[in-house]
Amino acid sequence: MPEGHTIRHLATAHSYGFVGTRVQASSPQGRFIEGAAAIDGKTMTDTSAHGKHLFLHFDENIVHIHLGLYGWFTLRKGSGAQPKDSVRLRITNGEYVSDLSGPTACELFTPQQVHAKLSKLGPDPIHENADKEEAWLKIKKSKKTIAALLMDQSVVAGIGNVYRAELLFLACLDPFTPGNAVSRTQFDSVWNDAVRLLREGAKDGHIRTVAQEHLMDDERELMLHGKGQNGYVYKRTGQECRVCRSEIVSEDHFGRVLYWCRKCQM
After folding, report:
1. Long-range pairs for 147-156 at CB < 8 Å and ≥24 separation?
2. Would you say residue 81 has pLDDT above 90?
3. At 120, phi and psi to the nearest 5?
4. Which alpha helices (DSSP H) does the chain contain, by range?
């Protein structure tokens, strides 16, 4: 599932391509016909993102999009070829075309509905004005594991399975630590790394969490060319830890696979 950095990157890309221009909108799939009609011929006035939620603004009409596990945008220059039947929403302005396929949610919101949606979400570390104290208060009062809490979008918005694993590793924090046993120093480490890494990832949509000294030569080469992704523990089950050389382990945790290093995260 795309995480917060991807959604912010998509908001920026749509802002660059469409804000201030009049668009043509359609729903080739047929599941967003009324919504597409409401914004067809209208000017996109803004884009915004919070956690895993993207908003395309057309004054009082706002398209809310949650990509879920399978949703994705194909955004490119040009008028665009005939869209596939699976495209939920096509937006074009003659210079750029954006096709949305497979989202969990694609719906027309009023400003009031946007506010209601945002009120249910925790602070998003990407935002300059994010209130980390709100997240800290929820975590320190909870007996749930910190691994579960970081995936709860009402606690912190935008962190998914990849960043969850990487942030806990960087903080040397046992993922099964109850929230009320997490120290303020540990929380600050997780939050500060989330701010840094999510904002960095939002630049090009890639997740990169590994320090230069822990990268392989081919990984460094890819990074020099702005390509590739890397991580310390995510999807590295059975491989050596980049830091201590012990084995990376994983197990199911509330329906998602959790990855960690037993030695580094004692």
Report:
1. 147/175, 147/176, 147/253, 147/258, 148/253, 148/254, 149/179, 150/190, 151/254, 151/256, 152/122, 153/51, 153/52, 153/121, 153/122, 154/120, 154/121, 154/122, 155/122, 156/122, 156/123, 156/124, 156/125, 156/194
2. no
3. -90, -5
4. 4-18, 33-39, 111-119, 132-140, 146-151, 161-170, 184-202, 217-224
CB 228 within 8 A of CB 206: yes
Alpha-carbon separation of residue 156 from 136, 199, 232 (angstroms): 9, 15, 21
Q: What is the DSSP string of 175-209?
A: TT-BGGG--HHHHHHHHHHHHHHHHHHHTTS--B-
The structure's pTM equals 0.94
Task: Tell me which fold the domain 4-119 belongs to.
Answer: N-terminal domain of MutM-like DNA repair proteins (3.20.190)
What are the pLDDT digits (tens) for 27-63? 999 999 999 999 999 999 999 999 999 999 999 999 9
* Residue 90 main-chain phi, psi, to 5 deg: -115, 130
Digit-coded pLDDT (tens) for 164-183: 999 999 999 999 999 999 99
Taking the C-alpha atoms of residue 179 and residue 189, their distance in angstroms, rounded to an integer, is 14
**Token code pair at residue 168:** 């806990």
pLDDT over threshold 90, residue 227: no
Active site residues: 2-3, 52, 256
Structural domain boundaries of the chain?
A: 4-119, 132-261
How many H-runs (helices) and E-runs (strands) does the chain carry?
8, 10
Class of domain 132-261: mainly alpha
Mean pLDDT (whole number) for 231-240: 97
Structure tokens at 29: 């799939």
